[in-house]
Structures
1.
Amino acid sequence: MPQQRDDHKEVQLPEAELEVLACLHDLGEAEAAQVRDYLQGNRPLTHASVTTLLRRLESKQLIDRRKADVGKSFVYFPIRDPETTFQDVAGRMLQRVFRNDTVSMISSLFGAKQPSRQELEELRELVDGLYDKADRADHRRNDSSRLGGKRKRRSSGEAALRAGRGKERS
C-alpha cells in the first residue's frame, strides 16, 4: 500500500534537484529544454538528465506538469511557494551541518558572500521583526503567569456543585 505524502514533511533534495526546482521558481514555468538552457552556465545537463530530475521532483509532489500548447512537450511548474521549499532545505542544513547553531550558519553565509548595504537594511528589518515577535511572545507568557489559576475554567457540573454547597451553608 503506497504511503500518503505529508505536505508539511521535510523534503530531501539532492543538489541537482534543488537547482532545477530553484530554476522553476525563478521562471515560474518552463519546458525541459528551457530548464536545461537556464542551468547551462552553472550545471550543464543533458536533456535526458533534466527530464529525469523533473520526474523526480514531480514524484515528490514539488512540481506538476501540463501539456504544452504546441508540440509534444510538457510545461513544468512548482506547486509549493519557494519560501516553504527553501525553509525546509535551510532547516535541514541548519540541523545537519550546523547542529542547530543559527549564528554559525548566518556567519558562514556572510563569510561566503558579504551582504550589500541594501541587503543589510533588509536584514535589519527582519531582525527588528523577530525582536517584535519575541517581545509579543514574552508578553503573552508573562500575562498568563500573572493570572495564575484565575483563568482556569470550571466545568458546569463543578460550578453547580459549588453553588449547591453554598446554599446548604446558609
2.
Amino acid sequence: MTIGDLRTRKPNYSQEQVRDRLENCKQLKAKEMSKVITFSRRFPATHPRNGEATLFVPAINKSLTRKHFLSTGNILDALFALNKHLHKNIVAEFEYENRLLIPQWLDLKPKKHTIRGGHRWESGDKFSPRVWSGRPYCSPQITIAPDIEIKRVVNICSDGVLWFVKNKPIDASRLAIIAANDGLSIEDFKDWFKNKPFSGQIIIWDAELFYL
C-alpha cells in the first residue's frame, strides 16, 4: 500500500455508525454554542441581605415548564443527568439545601429573566444556567436546568438615578415590575445595583413576556 492509497482510502463505516458520528458532532456543536450564565445562590457581601438565599434557583425552575426541566422521574435524577461530570454527593447536597428552603417558595414568583452588563446576547441564543456549588470561582459549577433559549433581549441602562428601557425613562412602578420578573423586590433590586451607572441587557426566556 502506498502513501497515496492511505490518503484516498475511505473509512469503512456502516450507515448506522455514520449517523451516530453525525449526531455526536451535532451535540458537540450545540455544547460549544451554548454560553454559560451563573446565578447567585446568596446575596453578595455588598448587599444589605449579605448571605441570605436569593431563591433564584427555584424561581428559575418555576418559570420553566416541567417538561423542559424533567427528562426523568424527579428533580434529583434530573440534576444527576445534567451533571454527570460531578460527584453525586455535590449534586445531592445542592438539592438537599434547596429542599430546606421549600417553606420560602410558597409565595415565590417565577424568575423570567436576568439582567447582565454588556450587549453580547441575541434572541435565539441558548445558555446553560448554572450556580457555584460552593465559594464562587473556587468550586465546581452545577447545571440547574437544560439549556434555555433566549426569547428576546431588551436594552436597559441607568445613570445611577434614572433607569431607561429601550432608551426611554421608566417610572418606579415599571421598575418594580422588572425587578419582580428578575426575582427581586424593588428594594433588593436597587441595593443590588447600588445606584451606580449601568448599561446592559434584560435577557428574557419567558415567551410571553414583553417590555414595550
